[in-house]
Amino acid sequence: MKFKLVLALIAGLFTWTGMAQAVDCAAVRARFQCDAATHYPLHLSFDDGPALQTTEVLQVLKQEKIPATFFVIANKVDCPALEKQCKAEHGSKIQACLQPKQECEQRRQILLQAKRAGHVIGSHSYEHLRYSEVEQGLMREHFRLARQVLDPYLNTTPPLFRLSYGDGWFNRQQHPQVLAALKANGFQHIAWQLSAFDWDENNQQGDKILTNVLEQVCKRRQGGVVLFHDGVHDQLHTGRLFTTTHLKDWIPSLRCVVDFKPLSFFETGYTQRR
């Protein structure tokens, strides 16, 4: 009995030691030339969802107790519009529209899951367009639709919005009509200070995405809101697979350098509702 107890204690010690050594924080900080005495505040934000694989992101966030913000494309959960479009394309072939309808309802449930988990839900407009380049009537209609379709999910007052490509924000002095249209629809715009550049296929290998984030944080000696993607803007149901699969692997190294914070740590002017 004592022998078994000793074995169990030794096994537990090795298990604990293995976990403790899984990430060498000193090596992480040295590699990116980070200040060893500082943890920088960071907020995770995800664009272009919801997608099937958003559930994987939600699971990681729950396990790691990390708050996040999801900026979602409204047409991905506009099930009546998608069904109407499908029927127009397939005519009397009713079976062809069953799976798209089920997938849309699934995305709605995933978005509700994110909301119920306490994450901030914001709009990424109705479609993923450069709104400084489109006709203003279409832009205003998309902003209106984005608020209408996402109303059951948006959980801040005022509702939050992130422009696709940052277009209309980074070039706001040249195109003030974009932010003016957002304001007319009651939205507050939220930008980002750091980017994982996870949309770039050249970065979807090894630890390039993790490197992108840590290099920015440590070189600037400051944190901020970082942009990731859980979805792919031109795919309704499939997510940004490299990100959704590897997020869990990046968190331990990130924790060596950052403290995860809620969006409200960086942004003011809104209140979150449950």
UniProtKB/TrEMBL annotation:
Record flagged with keyword Signal: yes
UniProt keyword Signal present: yes
InterPro entries: Glyco_hydro/deAcase_b/a-brl, NODB_dom, Polysacc_deacetylase_ArnD
GO MF annotation: an example: hydrolase activity, acting on carbon-nitrogen (but not peptide) bonds
Highest taxon of source: Bacteria
Occurrences of domain NodB homology (ranges): 40-263
Key words of the record: Signal
Family matches, as SUPFAM superfamilies: Glycoside hydrolase/deacetylase (SSF88713)
Signal peptide: 1-22
One GO term (biological process): carbohydrate metabolic process
Protein name: Polysaccharide deacetylase
Species whose genome carries this gene: Thiothrix eikelboomii
